[in-house]
Amino acid sequence: MTIVNKFDISRQYKWAYSFCPSAAVSIVVRLVIAEVFERRFDSVAKKMLCSFAIAIVVAAANAEQCPLYTYLLNKLHYRFNVKPKTPFEEQTNPPNRFRCPNPKFLLLLRCNALPKIGEETMQPSKGRRKVGSTPAGAGIDSAEKLDELLISSAICNGEDLGPFVRKTFGTGKPETLLHHLKFFARSKESEIEEVCKAHYQDFIHAVDDLKSLLSDVESLKSALSDSNSKLQSVAAPLLSSLDSLVEAQTVSKNVDLAIGAVTHCVRVMELVSRANQHLQSGNFYMALKCVDTIESDFMEKTPSSTLKRMLENRIPAIRSYVERKVNKEFGDWLVEIRVVSRNLGQLAIGEASAARQREEELRIKQRQAEEQSRLSSRDCVYALNEEEDDEFGSGPESSDAGSSGGGLLGFDLTPLYRAYHIHQTLSLEDSFKKYYFDNRDLQLTSDFQVSTMTPFLESHQTFFAQIAGFFIVEDRVLRTGGGLISKQQVESLWDTAVTKMCTVLEDQFSRMQTANHLLLIKDYVSLLGVSLRRYGYAVDSLLEVLSKHRDKYHELLLSDCRKQITEALSADKFEQMLMKKEYEYSMNVLSFQLQTSDIVPAFPYIAPFSTTVPDCCRIVRSFIEDSVSFMSHGGQLDFYDVVKKYLDRLLSDVLDEALLKLINSSVHGVSQAMQVAANMAVFERACDFFFRHAAQLSGVPLRMAERGRRHFPLTRSQNAAEDTLSGMLKKKIDGFMTLIENVSWISDDIPQGGNEYMNEVLIYLETLVSTAQQILPAKVLKRVLRDVLAHISEQIVGTLCGDLVKRLSMAAIKGLDVDIQLLESFTENLTPLLTDKEAREMKKAFIEIRQMINLFLSSHPENFVNPVIRERSYNALDYRKVATVSEKFRDPSDSIFGTFGTRGSRQNPKNKSLDALIKRLKDVS
């Protein structure tokens, strides 16, 4: 540390430093010193000049820190015996002590003696120009010339010579710099001398003025000294009091600082205590808020270093502790929410099932109302439908009722939201979001694992309920979590879940061979879709998978129904069903609309059908309901045509074939055949019910279903049953018709009560009708009777045309006429069963034998060949049969051997007409 550094630049030196801020100040000081000693100035002038020089050197030394200035300053102190001032002395001594008494002297020095370098208005002197133009010598190269020019220019302009001095001494050639400095000093000596000569008189006058003021100054000095003594004597107590006051103020200030520090520490400790209480009570958010307040508002201002170190150590530990606790709670919540999700999914799907059941009940009531309206029933019943409150909620609106979960549902999102809130407070929001999404994604992946230990039929409800509950929870978190999970993330999870569920369904459906199992899974998946559609999830892909397996399901369903129908038919005993109670009647008759009257019969009631009919009806109805159940709630609104198509297949391909097989293999008696025919008639009414029931379940108006009604799908089995019954009856009739061999065809006696065979046939027919009326419907009985009567007619005609009858007498024809009259009488006696028109139609069954008898009983048989008469009266006769019977009916006397006895007698006109008929028929043939 140099001596110059001990002096501060005070205000008295600032004006001096403004004259020469460069290294040239040393030259100026030397010139002033030389002038003082050569001119023999008086002491006052010497001191003023020396003070001025010292001021310049001190200012420059403190500004530039150059050892040269220190050397000059010490030299001045030694030459003028001036003691260097300490900073304290500079503060106590006013700057006016060294100020020039004459302002003109300052102006002189400022303008002439020490001109400011760099001002544009000042021109360099002649000496300066000489210095700038003096050559350095002929032996210096261009680089040295450039350095000399730069040094000369810097000296003339008053620039900083420090770099040049360092460079000169560094190169070891200071002669050039010293030469230029000496030359510059000599050039300034004449200027300083001229200035001093020009202002010498003014300076002397100024000194004289100062001397004249010396006495006044001395008196003023003594007065000031007295005043100072009095002031000090008077102010001594005051100064003592002031010292006490200052000391008291210092103590008070220290006390205030101490109180403030204690108060600050107390507030910090209160916050610390509050944070501890919150930590103990588990209120981590408030604890973190207290910690944040301590850290942001109090830690930096805490005066106690011990307390501050404690806070710096414990605050991160508290945050780590809170983070561990909430992460543990969140982990426990992740474990618990899986169980809760499964229960939640089961509850949601159960609620959807209950809602579907209510819709079905409402739809049934609507169908009943439509049926009443269709039947023009005026006794309408009106009821108020009161729907129960949905405890589960109907979707997102109910789920938004509480942000922390549903109380009735038993799941709570408070641990999740608290963990999320705490991580937000810890500025770990993004990491927690990622942590939450990754864990939920892993849980969903785990939920996709299908157990191989248990059949999928047993575990599918748990499987789908777990997924449903998962996305119900995620929907709640999305709506109330404050950005914990985004909609895109939920949709990504849902897309993954849908893809996995579709894969599982495809795999499981491909393995299933039971329609009921497939239907159970389909119903549960559709309920899953209904439940999650409430929350805005797209379930179309799942429904498409279900629709894709529609054909397979119905094939399996048809296969199951085929087995059930086969078992039901094989168990049939071909006996009428006995119903002892009304509920049996309702279950077996009314439920399938098989009744022919609205009057409830008396019990016990014997139905016209066997147990096969209600059993098969139940199977078909179950098929319809299963088909509708599979087709409904699957995204397809109009599915009646699909249900109708598969119903036609069931009736035509399954039931009809099973009945045909039964008829062809298991019917061995008339009673069995009659029962099967009766069953077929009941099945015809049941088929109408089947299509109406399918239309009702499909939501199609009955009028549209009736408009598109097809033919009876069991026509083949119905015809087979009636044909079988007719065939067996014909066999029975054929047994009685064998008695026709006992008829005397050439007898002249006419049987009064008819032939024996006809009496037997009539007895059997009457017994048959009385029995069949209890079982067979009228239209079936009429068809069977007509077929049997036609068979009787054919048998009689066949007998007449056959080899059994060689000749026919008129008595035999009249006997046949009596037989046919008995048949006609039998037909007419069926009046309760037949109307007059139907009786006339029934007689057409044996019209062939009737027309043949009428032909041979007529007077002119040859009218048969008359087209008009034949079309009107004999249109059922075949001319070949007529020719055959006519040959047998010809009178024997008309033969060749009979002409000998009657040659001369007149021929019978009827025989003549018959001969003409025979001749004409032979010509035709």
UniProtKB/TrEMBL annotation:
Q: Where, subcellularly, is it found?
A: Cytoplasm, Cytosol
This protein's GO CC annotations: cytosol; exocyst; membrane
Q: What is a biological process (GO) this protein takes part in?
A: vesicle tethering involved in exocytosis
**Which Pfam family, just one, is annotated for this protein?**
EXOC6_Sec15_N
Domain Exocyst complex subunit EXOC6/Sec15 C-terminal: from-to ranges:
541-888
Stretches assigned to the Exocyst complex component EXOC6/Sec15 N-terminal domain: 180-349
- Keyword set, alphabetical order: Cytoplasm, Exocytosis, Membrane, Transmembrane, Transmembrane helix, Transport
**Main location as per UniProt:** cytoplasm
Check the record and name the InterPro entries matching this protein.
EXOC6/Sec15, EXOC6/Sec15_C, EXOC6/Sec15_C_dom1, EXOC6_Sec15_N, EXOC6PINT-1/Sec15/Tip20_C_dom2
Membrane spanning segments where? 15-37, 49-72
The family this protein is said to belong to:
Belongs to the SEC15 family.
| Its job | Component of the exocyst complex involved in the docking of exocytic vesicles with fusion sites on the plasma membrane during regulated or polarized secretion. Involved in polarized cell growth and organ morphogenesis. During cytokinesis, involved in cell plate initiation, cell plate maturation and formation of new primary cell wall.
The name this protein carries in UniProt is Exocyst complex component
Give the originating organism. Capsella rubella
